[in-house]
Specification:
The protein is of the alpha/beta class. The protein has 4 domains: 2-131, N Utilization Substance Protein A, Chain:P, domain 4; 138-200, OB fold (Dihydrolipoamide Acetyltransferase, E2P) (Beta Barrel); 205-347, K homology (KH) domain (GMP Synthetase, Chain A, domain 3), CATH 3.30.300.20; 352-413, no CATH class. Helices cover 40% and strands 25% of the residues. A hairpin with a 2-residue loop joins strand 8 (181-192) and strand 9. Helix 3 packs across helix 6, helix 7 runs antiparallel to helix 10 (260-268) and helix 11 (283-290) packs antiparallel against helix 13. The longest helix has 28 residues, at 107-134. The protein is rod-shaped and about 130 Å long. The N and C termini lie far apart (112 Å).
């Protein structure tokens, strides 16, 4: 019964740590075998019988009977006279099994057993916790604020696991109080000694990507692909999206009617300004879109050095650069090109310019729209371009572009 009582006292760990009974019994056997090795030198001739249903266990030691004068290994052998105290008809060479009571191990050994058990269970918990959260790296996770410190916020999930949100992983506008629910991605799991430290991030590009998956069904279903995400946390972000289904407008689907779909994401990120753009393999068009809302006049690409000279009218330069240089910085990160802004002409040059829509009688609307996609919406903005560049940057045939150029030149010649 004393074995059973000890097991019951150990079972509190099962409830506290949510460890299953079978695992607890396996740990118990390991702990008891270590104790037997310390006391007897070996556990090879011991049988530990565990009943996980009852939570009971028995320890039996097997010894071979030898003549009284031949006793050499007390742990593995027993004298005939001692054996016959157990059963009068025992003979030399037979095996005797005796139950080992916990009291035989000594009080100090029993205290050590308990400490060893605590250590083993913590080790088991930490291993499982490390594996659990290692599999969650890159996923969105929600936890509650438990404590706010100057350099980190300590969160606790529903299972009581501690998660760290460092200051540098917080959006600058974040402000948390005890009890607040916080969303972020599990960015890393680090082992500090034997204890795993779970790191959450709200500044990672992956967090924004996962928010798109959560909030936009077409992204979750794989109908819209997120090709690239760049961020300045809390300030501005650019997300390039694409779809293999021509019937889907990826930008429209992500933004939603009057911004309804993206509004929740913006709010989660502290009103971070998010530009969603159509991805394209046409690098000139991609850079043009990435620099939105600025209208680009022309682009000169240096593919070898991954640089691009972007020509802009004076009034478009500030839009391209953006507040604090955020827009051009993110456009460069999104496209992978270092962008150099070249200011062209002066504001006076635009006074005799003509909106492209004024030529709708001679140029079809879809052609005007195609030029508008790359930021060319006036006559001079097109005439200042190289025809070959226009062929690369648009989906128009060279013949069509030459005809447009002819029409526009006639206007200014007249």
């Amino acid at each position: 019964m004393e074995n059973l009582a000890l097991i019951d006292s150990f079972s509190e760990f099962k409830d506290d740590k949510l460890i299953d009974r079978v695992t607890l019994m396996a740990i118990l056997e390991d702990v008891f075998r270590n104790a037997l090795k310390k006391k007897y030198g070996s556990d090879d001739n011991f049988d530990i019988i565990i009943n996980p249903d009852k939570g009971d266990m028995e320890i039996w030691r097997r010894r071979v009977i030898v003549a009284d004068e031949d006793l050499d290994f007390e742990n593995e052998e027993i004298t005939l006279s001692e054996a016959r105290k157990i059963e009068p008809d025992f003979e030399i060479g037979e095996e005797v099994s005796e139950e080992v009571k916990l009291i035989d191990l000594g009080r100090r050994a029993i205290l050590a057993l308990r400490q060893n058990l605590i250590s083993k269970i913590h080790e088991h918990d930490n291993t499982n916790l490390y594996k659990q959260f290692k599999d969650l790296i890159g996923d969105i996770y929600t936890a509650e604020v438990h404590h706010v410190r100057p350099r980190a916020v300590i969160l606790v999930d529903d299972e009581g696991n501690e998660i760290v949100l460092p200051k540098e992983k917080q959006i600058p506008s974040d402000f948390f109080r005890k009890g607040d629910n916080v969303r972020g991605i599990i960015e890393n799991v680090e082992l500090k000694g034997n204890k795993p430290q779970i790191i959450m991030s709200r500044t990672s590009e992956k967090f924004l990507e996962k928010l798109f998956e959560q909030e936009i069904p077409e992204v979750f279903d794989g109908l819209i692909n997120i090709k690239n995400v760049v961020r300045i946390p809390g300030e501005k972000a650019k997300v390039a999206v694409d779809s293999y289904d021509d019937r889907i407008d990826p930008v429209g689907a992500c933004v939603g009617m009057k911004g309804s779909r993206i509004h929740g994401i913006v709010r989660e990120l502290g009103n971070e300004n998010i530009d969603v753009i159509n991805y394209t393999t046409n690098i000139q068009l991609y850079i043009t879109r990435a620099l939105s809302p600025a209208k680009v006049s022309s682009i000169k690409i240096d593919e070898e050095n991954k640089r691009a000279e972007v020509f802009l009218k004076l009034e478009e330069v500030s839009k391209a650069i953006g507040r604090g240089g955020h827009n051009i910085k993110l456009a460069g990160q999104l496209t992978g090109y270092e962008l150099d802004v070249i200011r062209e002409g002066n504001i006076a040059d635009t006074e005799d310019d003509v909106e492209l829509t004024e030529f709708s009688d001679e140029i079809e609307a879809w052609i005007i729209e195609e030029f508008a996609k790359i930021g060319l919406d006036t006559a001079r903005s097109i005439l200042n371009q190289d025809v070959n560049d226009l062929v690369r940057r648009t989906d128009l045939e060279e013949e069509t572009i030459l005809e447009v150029v002819r029409i526009l030149k006639e206007e200014f010649e007249d």
